[in-house]
Design a protein that fits this description.
Strand order of the largest sheet: 1-2-3-6-5-4
Shape: globular
Largest sheet: 6 strands, antiparallel, barrel
Strand content: over 45%
Distance between the termini: 34 Å
Number of strands: 6
Radius of gyration: 17 Å
């Protein structure tokens, strides 16, 4: 969990006072079909329920899995922020949100694969330049 996943954020609303809600954007550090890990300065307790929008920013459009229900299962403090493990509710195999979440995971996998190739090939070319 060293770096946030590229171009992926979690958006959610939290209650601020009696009539006001705040839109919060949090970095996502892990994502799979069962849940995610996000980092924010907002305080939640294990057992709290959240409704997230997972948004993947793409050059021409966004891929957005809206109103994903999740349950906070773990909280770890890191400086002034918290890492939260969020377990998703079960998705139907052909549901629109299930398909969008699968698409986001596919795009992330490709981006991370390309990133690892760039860093590994960059280090090889760096060694060639030194020689």
């Amino acid at each position: 969990m060293n770096e946030a996943l590229p171009d992926l954020i979690a958006r959610f609303r939290i209650k601020q006072g009696l009539f006001r809600k705040e839109l919060v954007e949090a970095s996502v550090f892990e994502l799979d079909s069962y849940g995610c890990v996000m980092k924010t300065d907002k305080v939640f307790e294990p057992g709290d329920s959240l409704t997230l929008d997972l948004v993947m920013d793409m050059p021409f459009e966004e891929i957005c899995a809206e109103s994903v229900s999740g349950l906070v299962t773990e909280r770890r403090k890191h400086c002034s922020n918290f890492f939260y493990s969020i377990d998703f509710s079960e998705f139907e195999p052909g549901s629109p949100n299930g398909d969008k979440l699968r698409r986001i995971r596919e795009v992330l996998s490709r981006k991370l694969s390309l990133k690892s190739r760039r860093t590994s090939s960059g280090s090889i070319s760096g060694f060639r330049q030194m020689a």
